[in-house]
Each structure stands twice: as C-alpha cells, then as structure tokens.
Specification:
Number of domains: 1
CATH architecture: Alpha-Beta Barrel
Helix content: 10-25%
Cofactor: [4Fe-4S] cluster
Number of strands: 15
Shape: globular
Structural class: alpha/beta
Keywords: Iron, Iron-sulfur, Metal-binding, S-adenosyl-L-methionine
Number of helices: 10
Radius of gyration: 19 Å
CATH topology: TIM Barrel
Oligomer: single chain
Pfam families: Radical_SAM (PF04055)
Distance between the termini: 33 Å
Organism: Desulforhopalus singaporensis
GO molecular function, one term: catalytic activity
Strand content: 15-25%
Mean pLDDT: 91
Order of helices and strands: EEHHEHEHEHHEHEHEEHEEEEHEE
Strand order of the largest sheet: 1-15-8-7-6-5-4-3-2-10-11-12-13
Length: 346
Amino acid sequence: MKNKELHVSPKKAKSQARTVAFRSGERNVFFHILTGCNLACKHCYINREQHGTGQLGIDEIEEWLKIFVAPGKKTNLIILGGEPTLHPDLSRAIRSAKKLGYDVTVDSNGYLFHDLLEKVTPSELDFLSFSLDGPDPQVNDDIRGEGVFDTCVANIKKAVKNGFNVSVIYTVSRKNINHLHRMTELLTELEVNKFFIQVLGLRGNSAISEGEEVSQVAREEWLAVVPRVAEEAAAAGIHVTFPKVFLEEGEVFECAGNVAENYFIFPNGRVYKCPLCEDHPIHSYEICDNRLTALNGLTESSFFQLEIAEGCVMNKLLQPDTIEYDDDHNPVYRISCCLLKQEIKG
C-alpha cells in the first residue's frame, strides 16, 4: 500500500501512551439491540445476513441484560446498533441496565432519535459516545453521509451543555487519516471528555469495498500518525484510547478471548467473543429462550488457544493481507489482539 503525505504537528507531547493490559475478570458487553440505521456509512461493520434485521423488544432486552450480570464484578455495557437511538424504548433499557449494576455507554451516530437527551439524565448514562470520522463536513460526510457532521456536532454540544459525559469515536481509514490531527482542536472546542481512535475493521461494508479509499492504512502510516495525534490530544487535556494493533519486539501476545470476558451480542441471538469473527457463523454462544448456550463444534473459541508467529490467529485467518513477511516468510511484525488498547490520560 503506497503511503500518502502525512500531516503531523511537530508539537512535543507531555504524555506517553501506556498499554492497558487485560485484567482478570474484566467484563465488557457490547449489545446490539437492533441492526437498523438511518445512515449507510462506507465502513459500517454490520452484516445483516449474519446479524439479522430485527429489533429486540424491550422485554427481551431486559431479559438478555440479566444474562450477563455478574454480581461483584464491574461490567461495562455498550449499547449499539445500527443506530440504537432508533429504538423507542432505549431510555427504559438504559435505566434497567443501571439498576442491574452496569456502567452504561450508548454509541450513536449523533442523530439521537426519540429525544434521548430529554428522556435520560447524566446520572443514568455513564457515557454518550458519538461517531465522527472527520473534523469538518467535507471529510466526515464523504464517509458517513450528507449533513451528518452538522447534526452530530449540534447534538454533541447539546449533550455537553446538559451535563452528559461525552466521547467521540474516529475510525481511521485511508480516507481520513491525514485529517486526524485536526480533531484535537474540534474536540477541545466541543469540551469532549474522551477520544477513541479506532482501526478500520475488515467486516461488513469494509470487507466488500475492495479498492475504495475507505480502507485500512499501511502500518507505517498508522504508527507515524496515530500515536503522535493521541499524545497531542492528551496534551490538550483529552483522555485518548486507541488500539495497539502492532506488538513491539519482545511483547507477549495475549488473546482477550482467553484472559478477559467480552461479549458481542446481536439481535438474532448470536454472541461472539471476538469482533473479527462477526462476519462468520462461528460464534461461541447463542441466546435461546432467554438463556445463554455455549455452542459445540468448531467455533471462534476453538482458535483462541493457537499460538502463531503472526500474533492474532483470527487476523491471520480472516484478513491475512494485513500481515507482511520477509524473504524467509517470517512475519515482519506481530498483530496484537484487536481488543488490546493503549491510552493517554490528558
């Protein structure tokens, strides 16, 4: 992949990233309560053939939330879609989750349907996360759709004014990596608490858009841009989290599927442990009659025990083009677990 010109500020950072190690007992529940959305983003990872087209009723949502409660353990619940605010009972789902002891985040494209900000309070919602893929309409709307930037920014301002903890998610692709450095000024102006920089997953729309500009960036581009921008944003007082992606020499590979608890739930009842697997019917669990059932046979969990020179076995199996080899066919670098994060606290 040919590198493009990189625009990175020479400003020195005051902080350095640290890798957030997987902690025993760490629990994250990513709950897709529907797959419908008002947008058609070029990099959307939802695959309706695999994830279904349905929308869970509020009674089902509440029953499924009970399945993943672990008394005495901190569990992060991230409510997703599609666009979760399209669900008319989202506010009730949030309150039910809080009563069960979850820390609750809602990930939205920024449209906030059904007057969400008027139906929940900041004490009921730990974080409201907005997706922005550019610092201006020209960059963002070319990926997410016309008018999305202005709507999203207006609702970010409203959420901040109303006292909500607000975070922003930026999915890095070839289309927008050269504009990532411009996000710090926008986030500071908007008074955003957290900034999540994400790597583009080769799933859903991204997996079928070969040759388009919305595709993964080269390793050299990622390492030249993302850590530096994260440091600059942290120096401006923003808490930044971004994926490790590439292990450094001597770093030990760990798979979150073996050492942490992560559940990716879809409205058709599939439950995955690894997001890389979501385009394939190899999920570890299914929810049937409001009960979680572990599946037998060849599932994603069967692969997590494998140790390979390339690092993440699922990355090797499902997106091998992301790996480079030397003349002796040894991997030039190792890919970390996609859930391994780095953070810099502003």
